Amino acid sequence: MQFRKKERLYVSDLVDEPAVTYPAWYVLSAPMLKNEFLHDVLIALHTCTFTHYETPLSYEAIFEAMSQGRFAIYKERYIVGYFGGKMMYLESQGWKSMTVTQEIFLLHNWLI
Fold it and tell me: Mean pLDDT across the stretch 49-77?
């Protein structure tokens, strides 16, 4: 079995002066490194510029956005994607499976 090589995407390559400096990089696969939707949401998260994002009116809106290849922001802190039937959030070392808590069901914690 051959594993895909993962590379670091440095926030400083996307944003000159980030308002949020942690994490300084994300470990991503080659297709994710080129994903413009991911770049846009990373820039929004690290500059704290959420003007193009809104609180969803329903859960369907969250999943509709993710099914279009876009990403959601959870609690203005995590980038969330939907891969292989699982909601995943992005940490510096890559995508992690999202644990279901009561807070996930509060729509005001989401931006799409």
Answer: 93
